[in-house]
């Protein structure tokens, strides 16, 4: 069933995306993922499975790591969303992306934005994560290329860089 | 000139920055003005004649673009090898989810409703769903005998060895289908106008495969078809042949509507309709002497190709050549075939037939060891191929490979002996049984036999007036590092900084046909051509006197500027030339199958939980000889990624079939390894070099897919004492296999040879 069938009329949704107030006209059950990509042009958020398994569409919603394919836009009303594009000003972004580049954490790149959101979210909660914490923190984000090893190393390395500062 | 160290260094990934910032552009990130969205109406029967197609009159169809087989301007096929697969079924369907009709609309939300509003009536025909049913030939669904291809490899007099044998060991092994599960689904955008013809942007591995298929389908000349590869979110073989299908569909909709059309599958459609790894059955009958040395044997290898021939003959070829593993067979007969079933065609997936036949070989080696009464280590050591000996296709091993040394090092790295002893003690009590298993294997790099000669690849390198260099190849980046490695090679050859070299986006109007991005051929074959073409640029500049033997990047820039001012452009090309001494007989399947082999010994340590029947891999050592490692970080990433996929192949990833249709076509119930499921994968390299590859590189991409599954199942047997012959090995299979009743039924499969 398409979003348009599910819910008659479009409604206005006011929310914050990457620090900017946004107002969109959308069906209340439209996926946050589609609004970000199609209405706001934020294509760094990727669709992998559409059912909350792969984490490629991860964004931060009021500081929580969520799969934007499972969030109806109505639920984002008044919320503050951070996407990969919005992370550019985040204090953790530099060490994390440098570590991903140096450690080989990105191969095909399709899971990378979501993976980086998950890594940042983890490091916000746990600045010095053990390997088990890293595994747990990334468990909602699937990567088919790397076998995760270099991603674990990237997250650990980002944490070390930050602590060293 | 200063000594350069670009090749062999872990330089930054060329497109890395765009990937970590979310700026990289995949096809679904692209929107064209006036673009429509396309959808596919597919068959819901396994086999049948199409009787009637009707459109629900409740829907206003005038807003939709509708395409059927009648709208195809050229030939209704996906041109590949045999051209037997239609782009759209017109009279008969041969598998579930076969495309029949296409729809496009400006509002993508309206498409699903429209797909549901098309109803198709069929006259059902009997269908075939297993290798055994297909072999029985009581229902013929393809050609005269349901057989796409057979090969026969013969070496020595195998019929004479049975009577000399101290023991004859038999075994039968199975591998299941596996979904590539790239995280980015298949997708393309097509445009058409009469002046320029068709242009397709897509997620794909082989721009010129799509180019050829579109020429045939659309009836257009070479210069009226353009294919551009967008950033590609994983492929693993899954975007080798299928993109020709989806590109054809988008092109047909665009030709009919005159508007750009995007088709991007969702996960369920991608999983249910596109290719997977070929399921296989392998039978071994091996004659050994009392010390466990192989005297000879027969191997039967059969793969399920699905409904159309597509790439099955080539997958079968690789499986055939790898079936004997890294061992010396004084005599052998290998009979192989690819058969038809009414399921979507199986296709390319990393390893391409080799993981299937090597699974059987490496499980069978453990069986031989048991029957003979020697260790899995010893049976391998006694049978390893040595330099100067010949493979099953009678290729002489010219490399100085020392597999015994590789084995010893892998055993040491994994503390094999220590663990073996410790587990034997610890397993006496408790419900968690530990085991350790090994697999030794090889993987041929590049196309098989005469394949590279037929491909006749062409590579270009271009220098600009600013002294910047651009590599022109159709080789695609989809995560494995093509962009980076080819730029490294060009920079090294030209004595320029890595940063001065870029690679062109694969676009058939810009890059020559350097062949498909498959078969672990890019670094070795294309890399070597990039090296030659780059040297060609240098020679051009030195011959014209613009550049001396020793030069700085600034000298190079000045030389380029002067050359281009006079002659407008500076390009050099290099075409593949087969090494003169390579002999291959396509008829007898004999000779030099591959320009080089990579070699490996992997060791897996597992825990089998007898309460939950779950298997976890606790430690994994991957040791390989892959020639020169061009980029250590990327190489390691290839191995860890391949091992992870192979752990999925062995323990998690099960395609559940119902009348030829995958019914668990979701990530929720088709399970790939997550970050908490994998052991630390420890990667080690040995570097022997290779005369055929750039800087001595061999192929690496597929190798790690071959060994983990047998190593893991060997370890499961070590832990439980029960032989499993089939993967994927899920907890329910373990439960079944470990029940006392099934243990009693286990029949001995070794017999004493008769004198």
Written description of the protein model:
The complex is a heterodimer of chains A (165) and B (755). By secondary structure, chain A is an alpha+beta fold. Chain A folds into two domains: 3-87, Beta-grasp domain (Ubiquitin-like (UB roll), Roll); 90-164, [2Fe-2S]-binding domain (DNA polymerase, domain 1), CATH 1.10.150. Chain A is 36% helix and 15% strand. In chain A, strand 1 (11-17) and strand 2 form a beta hairpin. A seven-stranded mixed sheet of chain B has the order 3-5-1-12-9-10-11. In chain B, strands 7, 8, 13, 14, 15, 28 and 29 form a seven-stranded mixed sheet that branches. Chain B is globular. Helices cover 28% and strands 24% of the residues of chain B. Chain B starts with 15 loop residues before the first helix and ends with a strand. Chain B is an alpha+beta fold and 755 residues long. Chain B has three domains: 16-24 and 451-575, 2-Layer Sandwich (Aldehyde Oxidoreductase, domain 4), CATH 3.30.365; 31-125 and 196-234 and 242-257, Aldehyde oxidase/xanthine dehydrogenase, a/b hammerhead (Aldehyde Oxidoreductase, domain 3, Alpha-Beta Complex), CATH 3.90.1170.50; 280-448 and 588-752, Aldehyde Oxidoreductase, domain 4 (2-Layer Sandwich).
